Amino acid sequence: MAELFVPQTLDEAVGFLESHAGSATPIAGGTDVMIDLRTGGVRTEWLVDLSSLGSLAGIDLDGEQLRLGALTKIRALEVDSRLARRATALVEAARVLGSVQIRTMATLGGNLCHATPSAEMPPALLVHDAVVEIAGAAGERSLPLADLFAGPGRTTLEPGELLTAVRLRIPASAAGSCYLRQTVRWSMDLAGVGVAASMEVDGAAIVQARVALGAVAPVPLIVPEAAEAVVGSELSPATALEAGARAAAACSPISDVRGSADYRRAVVSILVQRALRIAWLRATGDWPEGLLAPINGLLAEEPA
Amino acid sequence: MRVELSVNGDLYRRESEPDLTLLALLRDVLELTGTKWGCLTGDCGACTVLVDGEPIVSCLQLARQVEGREVTTVEGLAGNGALDSLQAAFVSNGAAQCGFCTPGMIVSAEALLRARPSPSEAEIREALSGNLCRCTGYNKIIDAVLEAAGSRGAAA
């Protein structure tokens, strides 16, 4: 049995975690921590309940700057119509996480700090150049999201540190993003492969692009060389194919119940091509605003 | 540790272990056994209840974290012993086989109908995707939710 500490301020939370390093575990939505406690994956003397820290929840969009509080519920991301238009990958990742019940409980910060390699939110955030804000007893710091992940279930947070927010850049126009995934079941499943893409378009040319992968390496991956394959021209089947091949070459999937390593590499290539295509259609205004893509990105006019 | 909870409109004050789940509190302390004890990993949805009208799985919810909020269990849907229209539709459509998943299904469907009074079949499937029926009687469950949506629409 664990004791419960309920801090009323961020300082109080950080102070307690610092002074009880090794014996205290933060809990927010609880959808991972409660399972870890039950299965013995986490043993702790203290649960530090963050749910009273209301200031850590919220979605603030100011021009091109988006700030997501760590306690923001996944469900809140899923139903935000501004994000559906401007940061579609985030909504497409949020809507496939767990079930309605899990999304109503689970928080963005928890999804990141649990550091599950197949987590939905990291790839979608990575293609929007996410930076995480961290509070600790020694003060605040921030770092690129990619540098938060140290391995399966491990982050680079120091003992006593808390992730407090995620900052993103959301281009105001001529931009699009997309998150797709492959699963064995449509719902209540972890991604076998997760792929996010984003791009900005000037005239008919892609001027900036990002490709990120989930579930195919020990940590979520950004693949700059895949994105570079599509920069400088309009998106064509050939440039998308090259990007898919580079992404497949960059990942290091395992074989498990959700697919073999070879299968996952093949799916990475396909999903990267589809995600780039959908991001391109969004960036060029050829996709209905706010409409989410099929979960695996398969469009009706494409050959199956 | 003392926990103060509002459940189905009644306020309860109880002494409890600090890491007690809402599910354990509802069933073992308050003896509201409509909410079912299923997988305990958030996968099956049998323990679904509403917190401020939103569906959650009570097996992963610390009771202490929902203090000051309104919890609604399946017992809170029936008024004065009469089934509400959604429960009645489950009966008339034969939407229960063994019945174990039924309270969770009904609570998830209730949350959907409050948010979207006329859902599509696809929306119903999505809303119930976190509730497993091991008898696999999904079609009649969806029929029941569609019928309840129709009857509530007609009554409104």
H/E series of chain A? EHEHEEEHHHHHHEEEEEEEEEHHH
* DSSP summary, beta strand count of chain A: 14
Structural domains of chain B: how many: 2
Helix percent band of chain B: 25-40%
- What is the CA-atom radius of gyration of chain B, in angstroms? 15 Å
H/I helix tally of chain A: 11
Q: How much helix, percentage-wise, in residues of chain A?
A: 25-40%
CATH topology of the largest domain in chain B: Ubiquitin-like (UB roll)
| Annotation field: number of helices of chain B | 5
Describe the structure.
The complex is a heterodimer of chains A (304) and B (156). Chain A has helices at residues 10-19, 33-39, 74-78, 81-86, 88-94, 100-105, 108-113, 121-126, 224-228, 237-250, 261-283, and strands at 3-5, 24-27, 46-49, 59-62, 65-69, 131-136, 139-144, 149-151, 154-155, 162-169, 175-182, 193-202, 205-214, 221-222. In chain A, 31% of the residues lie in helices and 25% in strands. Chain A is globular and about 55 Å long. In chain A, the strands form four sheets. In chain A, strands 4-5-10-6-7 form a five-stranded antiparallel β-sheet. In chain A, strands 11-12-13-14 form a four-stranded antiparallel β-sheet. In chain A, strands 1-3-2 form a three-stranded parallel β-sheet, with helices on one face. In chain B, helix 2 (85-92) packs across helix 5. Chain B has a five-stranded mixed β-sheet with strand order 2-1-5-3-4, with helices on one face. Chain B starts with a strand and ends with a helix. Chain A binds chain B through residues 1-4, 6, 27, 30-31, 34-35, 37-38, 47, 49, 51, 75, 98-102, 104-105, 186-188, and chain B through 1, 17-19, 21, 40-43, 45, 48, 51, 54-57, 59-62, 64-65, 108, 111, 126-127, 129-132.
